[in-house]
Amino acid sequence: MPTIVSVQNLRKAYASGFEALKGVNLEIEEGEILALLGPNGAGKTTLISTICGITVPTSGSVTVGGHDTRTAFRAARNLIGLVPQEINLEPFETVFNSVRFSRGLFGKPRNDAYIDKVLDQLSLIDKKHSKIMTLSGGMKRRVLIAKALSHEPRVLFLDEPTAGVDVELRKDMWEVVAGLKASGVTIILTTHYIEEAEAIADRVGVINKGEILLVQDKAELMAQMGRKQLQIELAEAIDEIPKGLKSYDLARANDGLHLTYSYDTKGERTGITTLLNDLAASGLKMKDLQTKQSSLEDIFVGLVKEQA
Amino acid sequence: MNYTAVKSIYIFEMARFFRTIMQSLISPVLSTSLYFVVFGAAIGSRIEQVEGVSYGAFIVPGLIMLSVMTQATTNASFGIYFPKFIGTIYELLSAPVNFLEITMGYVGAAATKAMFIGLVILTTAYFFVDIQIAHPFAMFAFLTLTCISFSLLGFIIGIWAGNFEQLQLIPLLIITPLVFLGGSFYSISMLPPVWQTITLFNPVVYLISGFRWAFFGTADVSIGLSLCAIALFTGICLTAIWWIFRTGWRIRQ
Predict the structure, then answer these.
(1) Which residues of A touch B92 (CB under 8 A)?
(2) Beta strand residue intervals within A30-171, DSSP E
(3) In contact, A35 and A196? CB cutoff 8 Å
(4) Which of A127, A266, B115, B218 has its CA 20 to 30 A from that of A287?
(5) How distant, in Å, are the alpha carbons of A11, A291, B134 from that of B230?
(6) How many residue contacts between A and B have a Cβ separation below 8 Å?
(7) CA of B246: which chain A residue's CA is closest?
(8) pLDDT in tens, A32-68
(9) Which of A48, A50, A68, A105 should we substitute to test contact with B (largest number of B Cβ atoms within 10 Å)?
(10) How high is the ipTM of this complex?
(11) Which domains does chain A have, with CATH numbers?
């Protein structure tokens, strides 16, 4: 996949001296969904704002579709749609006029049929002539997306699209995002909901304290970094782990009926076979076996902790 | 040049004006009528002609200027402050538009509104006093230039303002006094000599004087000086706006 957004050594220091971005490098591939994961204040919004032109970087550069966002800002911004985190909308204007205004700002000729199509895609067509102030929170968020899509961008930035949105609406939003991806739009979304990244992203970037800690294919990341756990349920409770099993990193549950063995899927040998043999040799009877994959959340918390 | 964007901003801003068209119309008509009743009929009847013009007619250019300057300033300042306040400014900052295009859209709309109100007042004045316009073209040009330059000033105030109080502060504390003391309701030749000199430092004097010349053919200061003053004022405002967008002052972090 060709690169559509390239961020080179991007730094942003505010007048207060706070360094929001500390030399960020990031390549975004065309057509992918990249989730930028990070705790509050990690620099996610600053990164997006800098790419989109709202914040001026202290140093470094960004190109979108090969156009530098500062020297060729018109060409670069024409490719970008931005959905901000806050619901920033003119309350007294109608949905349609508001979206049409956005299209005009990007210099595109009037095309009401296209706007209708976008509104329809986002289930807003019934509210076309409603004033924005009369819409529900979820609908307002859709209006923001419609505005961002009004000029037919190739890259869409969604800054925390589901912050403060209920579960049902969140799933709805994921469907919208999936639909956009299917139509060929590259999507970068920031989130601090790990489940969101896990559910819809192709790649995951972890950002903390203004630095990108990693960017990786989601499945690969989970496979590479994920630790797995083997849970053994015993037929009879034990008071302590038998001598023959001391060399294994086993944890005994308080009830004495469960043993947990952690292993790394990266390792060539997981040690499961020998463990099971030794288990039988020490006379323990197994009732059940279960493996558990650690979630992206565990990986994320681990990474952020490591940096701290 | 992204003319579509300029047009979009202009239309979007004008829509705000048309949403409240009745308020926009009634308030200048009512306040002008009040001025005519108080100044024109009650006080004016005791004042002899000023520079060969009846007092009622004499105050018309000043009245128009008073409204136009305050309307242009408040419209333009509100126009750009509101997106800042509700957060929709993000859209302008991330769109492929430069400072000139944003300014043209907002200032153009604010100037149009002020111009419209100016013409409404002029029409209202026709019902109260007998006025003839000696130089209609110059009158129109002065009106346009004043609308644009004060909208530029308002635009700067809107960017500078951090809250609604500040938004009101400059029109209230600076523009209104300058207009009142700039000869809206009197000829500066009616002042004692010391005040005549002091008044010449008030930039509004040149605008009102020029505008009045367009109506009656007489002026406090020369018409060339008036034109220079308005050109200088516009130039200063444009430079300030160019600097604001270049540095991102108060809008881009």
Answers:
(1) 105
(2) 33-37, 59-64, 67-68, 80-83, 155-159
(3) yes
(4) A266
(5) 43, 80, 20
(6) 80
(7) A56
(8) 999 998 888 889 999 999 999 999 999 999 999 999 9
(9) A105
(10) 0.87
(11) 3-223 (3.40.50.300), 228-293 (3.30.70)
